[in-house]
Amino acid sequence: PPTPLASHRPQVTVFNVRLGRVSPGPPRPLRSVFPALLGPGGDHPGGGLDAAYYSYAHGALFLLKGPHAWRVLTDAERRAWASGGPQGSTITMKEAMKEAMKMKVTLPPRNALLPRQPTAQIWRDICDAGAAGA
What we know:
CATH architecture of the domain at 2-74 and 109-125: 4 Propeller
Number of strands: 9
InterPro entries: Hemopexin-like_dom_sf
Number of helices: 5
Radius of gyration: 15 Å
Organism: Petromyzon marinus (Sea lamprey)
Shape: globular
Strand order of the largest sheet: 6-7-8-9
Order of helices and strands: EEEEEHEEEHHEHH
Largest sheet: 4 strands, antiparallel
Protein name: Matrix metallopeptidase-21-like
Helix content: 10-25%
Structural class: alpha+beta
CATH class of the domain at 2-74 and 109-125: Mainly Beta
CATH topology of the domain at 2-74 and 109-125: Hemopexin
Strand content: 15-25%
Low-confidence stretches: none
């Protein structure tokens, strides 16, 4: 499946991993490629991303902006949603599922973003090199 690349605009360029190249067509709106799990009013970076990072440790893609990260719901988590969610769900995932159930979300959209978390909570070994080097 196509993998979007980071962008400092509210749009992303899509990279097709299988083909090993950028997908044809213009950049796509970030919100259409990565919708907020909790709907249009849900937590979303909006644009101005610093990076998109795939964590092998987490098996998930993260969108990074400032001190926050938004984790992209995996296809396996999305499929497991109907049966009450994946085993070993994170607290953020459980909270998001509870909120989504209130909103009667039966199946999350593809590439849905979980609510943001401070990057330091996800990767405790990352320091703020910007502050140290200032």
